[in-house]
Queue: 2 jobs
Job 1
Amino acid sequence: MQIQVTVNGKTRKSEVEDRTLLVHYLRDQLHLTGTHVGCDTSSCGACTVHVDGVAVKSCTLLAAQADGCAVTTIEGMAIQDSPTTSQLHPLQEGFKECHGLQCGFCTPGMIMTAADLLKHNPNPSEAEIREALEGNICRCTGYHNIVKAIQWAATHSTKPEPNQQEEPVVADEHLFTNDVTTGEVVETH
Amino acid sequence: MKPFQYLRPTGVDAAVRDLTAQPDAAKFIAGGTNLIDLMKEHVEQPTTLVDINRLPLATVEELEDGGLRLGALVTNADTAYHPLVEQRYPLLSKAILAGASAQLRNMATNGGNLFQRTRCYYFYDTSMPCNKRHSGPSQGPAGCGALHGYNRIHAILGTESADGNVHCIATHPSDMCVALAALEAVVRVSGPQGERTIPIADFHRLPGDTPQHDNTLRPGELVTAIDLPANGFSHYNSYLKLRDRASYAFALVSVAAALELERSDASGDQISAARLAMGGVAHKPWRKTEAEALLVGQRPTPDVFGRAADALLDGAQGYGHNTFKIELAKRAIVRALSQAAKLEPTE
């Protein structure tokens, strides 16, 4: 079937199998490999992305269910400050500043979940952060520095959320995400 | 995941027609948070998925009788945080937020929550015998792996069939449904024969000798909404969930307790109405009006709560690893009622 999904500000029109999971569409067809597959059974949270602004687990969602939706992945979190450069999102800065990752496998999902939390609750308590992360599993850190990283982001969050911006966001020199976004519909096979 | 045909109707009648066309092979999908996992594990193998997400069932409406109608496609998160639910049905908010994780609650719907399947490990493992999963050789052997296996999370109530045999000791996994049982919610469905309503107590069923059926829906029927009665017991309620770890686990035992208290005389309050439902202990949310009747007219004391607990757990039977649940459930009921009556704090 054909789907049209706006991923990190760019509208994609793609042909997918009916049974394609959103995470496989993002990783295998769009080559946005920042979204990870951990458990593949909606437990670990490594695959968390935003669909229409809310955090969901993309390993338990058909790409077909996201047809017509706006998807933000970790690659879309950095904030473009010129046509060729971008700044890390405060959460990305926070994880860097507070040593919020070790192996880094869970980090994209942690950041996407935390971004959803901070949107609803800009100044969460430690307990609220820990509760919000109940669907994200980290095998390395013991979570302490992840909590600190999110607290850091909460106190350094002066920048607008990417999906509230007029301008689409560009993250890094990734094959797809560094394309200048023109608003055109891109066919991806 | 096995290939399937994907349909996306935009109206309730069309969705019902799509499903009725092949009642054994087609499934509705809404959030899909449980169904897709089951399809990956080959526990569910629908040949057609009818995606109902485009149906106009995503609103919360106030009813003339003072109740609230929760659309089947409103997400669990939007329901739990809805101002009217928080204000008038805090028990429901608490139960929803005790379950799953933020990402799943963002995707899972109210209708879909009713159709969550058990998290029995033997049900998920297609190499193990399971009467609930079994409908043909492609879905593994018949029998019950849990009955003489590892059954720590399994049922202690309502497991025997009419002939005295036990075919399945799976539990219903939902937290939301336990609160719905306590609140006496009504499920609205639309099907090939038109619309009808089903009290939540009659929606899910005990396993008997046909544990493959979780509920009493007829083929092709679609849940369109859940109605909450006007009385939400918003002043005195508690949802207590006990599990093996503090977050992101299914309940070993959960209790939805709701009370109305009246000042009877200078010496204290008297219970004028009570609701009590349990999760994690049976094939459906477990409620007995006899247990609630023991509370009405009494003062809210641990002794009174203990008598209600004994009545609700009457006939409970353990299967080895889960026998501890009987005592755990008694204490959980007393504690939940004490919390609801504000005799002890909730964490």
Job 2
Amino acid sequence: MHAHEHRAVAERIERSMRKCREAHDHELLIEAAMLAGSHWLNARLHEDGVSSAGDDVMHTYLLTVNQHRRLSVSQPEAMQALGAIEDMRPAFVRGDAPGGPEAARRAIGLLSKIRPTHQ
Amino acid sequence: MLIAAHLQKIDRLLQTRSRLDPSADFELWFWAGMNAGTHAFNAALHHARLTRERGAFAMQPGVYLVPRADGALVAELDEPGDVLHVGRPVIEAVLPPDIQRIADAMERMEHHRDPCIREGRPATPAIVAACAEALDECLHLLQHRLAEDRHACA
């Protein structure tokens, strides 16, 4: 996907997120932050010429160490934020650890660090 | 997780999904259904005693977050409990026919995951319908499996 296509999907997902509530829908809000965040990250990487369309990041933990290091040099805050959202999934999305709504709030805050500031 | 916890997750995810428009909100609508179906698959596997029913949360195949008494979550290596997706990890056993049908339905649904969520392919009404039917089949099969238990106990 090209940068403008990633942006369009991220914006769509964020519109859908507004139909969810932290208190009741924390699983899907965390998943949505992860999905939208990965599209924002790919848009930024493509726009900066660090990666090309067709060479998208799906999850930060699926990157090789070298890829992760390279992309983190380009987008350190966004890479770290997406990784932090991904790390919430075992406990609060797949699992039922206490604190799901608070985790969703944190995920939404982290998403704002991945979204380009000019959006 | 425990079967009861999987069932609670399914209920929560279906409630969330019901507030989403399958077309306008396809990404999240699909994701809610995929997660609900995966919980159904896990509950069925636990019920058939093919995977371990345990209060632990899947991180990656073979690695689980385990809650401790003090509330901390600690990563441990363990035998298969919850799978992340059908095939992750592969269950090293012949699945009972109903659970195989759940796995097949999930694979039909997840066939649309990357193209429509990550690669920009539009979700057509036919894709929406196929995903909805796949989830309905998963949930129906799980309910039937669990109900048979209740009949046996009655």
